[in-house]
Amino acid sequence: MKFDVIIHVFGEIYNIEDVDPDDFSLVRLLSDSNLISIGERIIIDDYFKLGVDILGAKGSDADEETPISRMARYMIGREVIESTRTIEFQEGQIFEDGYHFRKVLKDYVIQEGFTLAREKNEKTRVSAKCGTYNYPWRIYASQLLDGVTFKVKICKERHTYIRKTKNAKVTSNWIASKLESLIQSNPDVKIGVLENDLRTTYGVKCGKQKIYRAKKKALDRMGGDHAGSYKKLYKYANIWMIQNLGTMALIKAARPAIIDNPQFQRFFLSFLAQKQGFLTGCRSFIGLDGCHLKGPFGGILLSAVALDANSGIFPIAICVCEGESTGTWGWFLNLLNEYIGEVETRIISFMSDRQKGVLASLQQIFSQHKTRFCAKHIYANFRGKFSGLKLMGLFWAAARATNAQDFKRNMDEIKVVKEDAYKWLMEIPFCHWSRHGFDKSVKNEHITNNIIESFNSWLGESRQKPIITLIEDIRRKVMKML
């Protein structure tokens, strides 16, 4: 086998025929050069996967190790296994780079609870020992031939000296990196909970102020992702309107002054498949509700959810806005009417919790349609004034009554038990909350807004994600449903 290639190894020149072909197969040839310098950069292809036979690889002379075999032997090592619980150092472990080694070393110092004294802390090598006088623990690691990978060359046994729970290495940045997932999953988590998690998981104690700073840093990192997502929202909406013709995606921005940059205020989205699915295969019943978003910028997710032919939830449209008010509900419902209501010939029954602004907006925009009030929320207000098991049973009997006689009988019993409770309920028109008063053309007996509550629960942890990720989660769920 002949190759017109010259290899430069450890300052010496070798022709290809001077080395064993098996050793040469370990070398990655550079297509743009006939000269390979090992002293400057690695030329071993995937040295993590080299077999143990390489340790004893020789050239044509079995009594002498070739430079390539020697180089391959130096590059072999055991990749470090990181764990949130236990870190162990051993001679021969390899790390991605010096930063990776120093990071794991810091975690180990915190885990074992001792002070670290650095002897060498250079780009190509790190040497450190236990700061306790005369304690023998020591570690030394340096770069390998690729100029990047670090390998532990010396490690004097495991550190077993008396452990300290307070450590200067436990900084707010370290705490933020370790508790970031917990904080992002629950941004409102208490400082005491984080303090207890640090103590039980990592065995360290630190002040509440440091944990507070760590929590703030973790939330700031999460906020950066959220802010970047809002910046991409316009392009995201534009892509869907181009690629999915018939989709309605609108953004409303606020600009207090002409010199100010526009600030996001509201976003409406409904896909063509949702519109067609509602018009052709769903019942004429829509539940309306809003739920809080858990990201760093807050906000409310307004949603309109219908019932399909199997009485399953069918989302129609969503709106991300600054809060629940007459203005936000009016903007959302006006767009919903523009997109769906103008082509809908049926009488639609809207179910709501009587949120702030929703009733006035429904009356103004969908005046020809019917409205219902969630009996569960009516009873929650009712119970705050008139408690008792008997009144509870009579209220639900009246709400579920399918004819006027049963409704009147239950209301009369409520009047006997508590006349003020009777008057309070009669102030709410029964056509909005009692089954017998519903419009007969709707053919739907729901007296609660449980379908929208199911939708909010269906979103799960998506409510704490950046806005585009939230919308994508909803889109994928709806796509699977369709």
From TrEMBL:
Listed PANTHER family: MUTATOR TRANSPOSASE MUDRA PROTEIN, POLYPROTEIN, PUTATIVE-RELATED
Protein name from the UniProt record: Uncharacterized protein LOC125418882
Pfam family, one: MULE
Endpoints of the signal sequence: none
Domain MULE transposase, chain residue ranges per copy: 286-381
Species the sequence originates in: Ziziphus jujuba (Chinese jujube)
Occurrences of domain Transposase MuDR plant (ranges): 89-152
